[in-house]
Request: fold
Amino acid sequence: MSRAYEQLQPYLERVQAFQTARILFEWDNETLAPKEAGPNTSRMVGVLSAEYFSVITDPQVKKLVKECEGEDLGQVEKAIVRELAEEIEKLEKVPAQEYREFSQLVSEGTRIWADARKNKDFHSFAPTLKKLVEYTKKFASYRAKEGQKLYDVLLNDYEKGFDMETLDKFFDTLKSQLVPFLKKVTDSGTEIRDDFLTGDYSEKDQEAIGRIFAEYVGFDFDRGVMAVSAHPFTTNLHNKDVRITTSYNRHVDDSLFSVIHESGHAIYEMGIPDELTQTLVGGGASMGMHESQSRFFENIIGRNQAFWVPVYKKLQEQFPSQLGDVSMDDFVKAINKVEPSLIRTQADELTYSLHVLIRYEIEKMIIEEDLDVEKLPQIWADKYEEYLGVRPKDVAEGVLQDIHWSQGSFGYFPSYALGSAFGAQLYHYMKGQMDFEGLLRAGEIRTIREFLREHIHRYGKLKTSRQMLKEVTGEDFNPQYYVDYLVEKYGELYKIAI
Amino acid sequence: MSRAYEQLQPYLERVQAFQTARILFEWDNETLAPKEAGPNTSRMVGVLSAEYFSVITDPQVKKLVKECEGEDLGQVEKAIVRELAEEIEKLEKVPAQEYREFSQLVSEGTRIWADARKNKDFHSFAPTLKKLVEYTKKFASYRAKEGQKLYDVLLNDYEKGFDMETLDKFFDTLKSQLVPFLKKVTDSGTEIRDDFLTGDYSEKDQEAIGRIFAEYVGFDFDRGVMAVSAHPFTTNLHNKDVRITTSYNRHVDDSLFSVIHESGHAIYEMGIPDELTQTLVGGGASMGMHESQSRFFENIIGRNQAFWVPVYKKLQEQFPSQLGDVSMDDFVKAINKVEPSLIRTQADELTYSLHVLIRYEIEKMIIEEDLDVEKLPQIWADKYEEYLGVRPKDVAEGVLQDIHWSQGSFGYFPSYALGSAFGAQLYHYMKGQMDFEGLLRAGEIRTIREFLREHIHRYGKLKTSRQMLKEVTGEDFNPQYYVDYLVEKYGELYKIAI
Reply:
């Protein structure tokens, strides 16, 4: 009789195949599928999801996982069994029938949300949102360990080891230091010109330069593709098939930095070793660690003055009439311009985490304080006014702007801010190890990328984000690096005495 | 206890989901997937194929199929059970282990074939081909009914009711009439100019006009997409997601007519009713019937003088410098120019079926007469010289040109010629029912398309091609219509007294 771990392999293979198929369907749906394909295709995806569910909750799988505990497993094998055990626990605690109802609600929910956003009518979405919250809380309660708060259960799904206790401290740090700092920036009187970033930038030219920059930062087009979708995203079938999308409008920086951002995600997935890909540990460690890499490439690398030294000429050559007369310094200032705004996905680097702070505070109220969802538009608007100094004129640019809640995703948002903070902590450490800006100026992004690959990417999900951060930087998560990075960078840009 | 037919549904759903996923992976692989994705992705597709196999050969499924025989089923239900029973029979008679070996061989086979073709070296492919033939014959022998010839087993997979007896007559008709007729055409002394079809036709313009013509003949872009691949093909996930590809080169007619051809396939699949799509009978009736529709749109409609009357101007507008000075008459002559050539996929309408005739004769020798595959290059070249008057200078433009045998597909080729003959028989009948050319001249393709939808498409696989042909035209398959159509059309074009 072979070992339990070996007997698990056919199950794991099927899990992987169903997941890979689901990812491909999703990619196809976002990038290419014809308008009317939706309902018929969804039915097939539903069957594949049910197959996935039935393998994970197969009693034989559970039995084998238990038996594996008695076996002498290697590090990778252990981690795979651990991931599988967690997935079993997550799925088996929720009754299949309730999960189906919830899935159905989610699929309707995103449609109702989209309509509500279009019509700027929160009340048509509120009853659905209320039900989504109820299911979410019920499912969290099934899974909560004794004494565990429901929101902590949800947070743990996206970022292990970051519960409310940690996140309260994190967001308090941001709130207490960045909100007053932002006020100084907006009051500084420093004017930054960025009109040249908007204009007659053809889609063809934006795509051409996007490909050049994706490749320049390390996206490997032999192992990946780039396409167009309504909202940029990254996905992958495995480490040799990693896909990014972008979208094009009149603001050239939107597509340029979305491509660099998604390339950061993609480089992470391309850096997963062959031994891990197509296994349960063959992906980025967490949402936050993923976002740390994408925002690292986008902001710490891509919006760095040194980055542009060797390549600004290339951009000018692609857009001679638009940027031929714009100096590199003016360009770099423009791409770092701070402008408190209403839409998270369009936020600048400094204000970004304040958008997330607002969502964190509201999610806590929804999950832990039974907030009446009808009050959300008001609370949302008040917080934007308080932290960012701007107030949405309607729910489309307010509480309805993000898709997440309509998909039943609560606890996801904090990862966006955590990612930026992880990145800043890594950056602080890396600057002590290498001449970071010197490398950028020399066009040596490879060295930076290899550092990230060596210390982060190659571990997949073998370690948690918090573990890796500690092992790499020698220090537990410390949000102060993030605040310091922002205050230093934007203090200089806006000439603020600190 | 519910009826056996109802108990079959979850199995059928899974069959459908695995097939749909496989189709999407294949589409993605041909149109988009990055260079290095192959091996990892194949592994996942292999798992999905194994799942498909295991559902079909599940003893419970077989039991339910048997029980269905005692139930009072509707026409559609009966047809679905019949298709399932046939698939079970096909898969269960071949030992799983042998089938895996064969699949492995096929996946190596296409690679070895591609290399051999590139190197113009038949001998490096011959041993693999020999093995493929052996497996094919062995599998056919497992499935043969008493006294049934092996090649008949294979032919039946692609075209029910067309065995060697029928096909011998069909191809004899072609050989005895078209070979001498072709000689008259090539000896006629009539010169047709077609140099203007080749030149600086940009990919962008070819794509634009391709989309216009696809839509013009009836391709619905709300239910389909068009992309680029090395060789044009059509595939579909269901009736609301039908996909065609084309490729672009310096010959504008190549992409134009490949788009119209694939649109014919696509219109068939878009015409499958909602009740049938996503079931085992929710596709075209057969390979031959499918090809009848694609070649009907390409040739009987698309290369018809009347077709161009309302739309030639559009083509000229897209290509003013290339076609502005070319009259419609000269253009229509050019797209119908006869030129005996070596490559089937580039053959004109008149010589096309002779390429298929050669393959049919050779396949019969391979399967029924134990032909030594080493002799193939010689036999191939001799037949081309005899029937078409041209002789390949190497195996790349000879016996190695088609992928089919390397995929273990024997018995497929005849469908290509049958399709053209089905189309001609339909055309003959339709001309008695409607002013066919008048409709084309008036741009009323819709009426023609609706006739095909009403009499062919909407039945999916509920009837065989032969049944449908008989029911629509009131007559069994009769290849003489095909010969008459060609002789009339090309006799006129080449001014041949008949």
